Amino acid sequence: MLPHSLIGFAAVMLLMTLLWAYSVRVKNASIVDIFWGPGFVLQVWVYFLLTPQGDPARKWLSAVLVSIWGLRLGVYIFRRNRGKGEDFRYQEFRRKYGPERYWWVSFFQVFVLQGVLMWVIGAPLLLAQGGPGSIGLWEAAAVIGWIIGFVFEAGGDAQLAAFKANPANKGKLLNTGLWRYTRHPNYFGDAAQWWAY
Fold it and tell me: Most CB contacts within 10 A, which of 72, 78, 156, 166?
């Protein structure tokens, strides 16, 4: 499985390098945030294609669930960031290192770092794609956990966006809907989905 893992790493790093080159051209590194979720989608489908020995139903289940999660997250972050300019974190890097050094610093400290993290965090996806055995009770329980996580993550994101869009809520704390159960239902949901994989 090591060669498959290295091919997954190469695919992720190619994506991050292309995104970095685009970010240098448009002077906005925030694009890396949009592709956090879709980067895992790329990774799971690379592993899907490279592991013919895995159970087909298990492979499809894993790939589809990761794709739904990753594409939803990418679209959500794209919509949230659209028209807002570069994120303050990357602006701070840009100020700290200056225009002559920032583009290389952003490559290693933003794009390569996130690519490596994505590859490490996504390592279980390779195991899920190549795993033996058919779908059983554990997988059914995992799907239920994933659905609960998806509802919390997507619902929490939607509730927070609606709350922030209302000017009357400026300076207030969201504590209704899913936000009354946990301080960050979107993060809880994200973690629940990853545990399900």
Answer: 156
b/e code 1-13 from CB counts within 10 Å (16+ = b): eeebbebbbebbb
- Predicted model pTM: 0.91
**DSSP annotation string for 28-96:** -TTHHHHTHHHHHHHHHHHHHHH-TTS-HHHHHHHHHHHHHHHHHHHHHHHHHHTTS-S-HHHHHHHHH
Both tokens assigned to 79 = 């919509």
What is the residue extent of each domain of the chain?
A: 1-133, 136-197
Q: How far is CA 67 from the centre of its chain?
A: 10
DSSP, residue by residue, 118-182:
HHHHTHHHHHHHH--S---HHHHHHHHHHHHHHHHHHHHHHHHHHHHH-GGGTT----SGGGGT-
- Average pLDDT estimate for 141-163: 96
- Cα 188 from chain centre: 14
Percent of the chain with pLDDT over 70: 99
